[in-house]
Structure prediction request, 317 residues.
Amino acid sequence: MTDWQPTASIATLEVRARMLRAAREYFTATRALEVETPTLSVAAVTDVHLASIASTALQQRRFLHTSPEYAMKRLLAAGCGDIWQLCRVYRDEESGRWHNPEFTLLEWYRIGMDHHALMGDVERLVTTLLPASRHSDRAERLSYRDAMQLHAGVDALDDPSAVLIARLHSAGIDVPAGLHQDRDACLDLLMSTLVGPQLGHDRLTFIFDYPASQAALARVHGRVASRFEAYLDGIELANGFHELVNAQEQRSRFQQDLRERERRGLPAVPVDEAFLAALQAGLPDCSGVALGFDRLVMCATGAKHIDEVLAFPFGRA
Prediction:
């Protein structure tokens, strides 16, 4: 017999609805324009850590977006000012306690703001959306290097891969042979297993200034990228950047991603030429952040699995 009932309780869905209303009220009060952008795109994400889901529409190949970022930046370049969006996004090969292939992302951009100022904006929003019982002291802020030293005992900027691997082995964590020559992958494994789970247990925690090699779409200053992540209850909630505005540099990063995808045997994907054209036309100085709304609902309700805050997760869709 088909199990048709929702996995989230009605009480949880009511909490979710209240949080949705509070988010809209917050952005209205802070003068950000709510926008909508297409779910289907001619381009896919080049990041080797993300997998786009391909589709077909009008006999043309399209990709379900993993984030509305590229389209929202086209709006920023067109002069929209501060903008925000709450939308469904899609990522293949992601399923588990914290992941559903289809999930809700809250993404917004502030003009003339760097990533440090945006952390304050994230903190105010999270405080607004969480119940009063979850409010705490001012958020903790740690550099990526300090967080790695504190919780894993390694120097994220200087220690070679061999040291990182030895630290993982000492914690009983297996490191696949394919990662031994990939220093950033070793850092990611340390963050996901030893560092991240220790963060944000008494208050919201921000980790900022990631290694320059992990800049993604953020600006780079010397050895670090102007990027942050937010953690609560050991869960990564948000990823934010002081946005890169140089079109040539962005194209170079896309091309580097494509070379790495080829090296790893991953499929080649088309880059977003419309996004690059918008950067060439001129993206204003801005910072942006994407926050996993389902995970924030988990923190608000004490849920232990993402299915508990979704009406119909992948297995029941």
Observations:
- The first helix runs from residue 10 to 29.
- The longest strand covers residues 102-111.
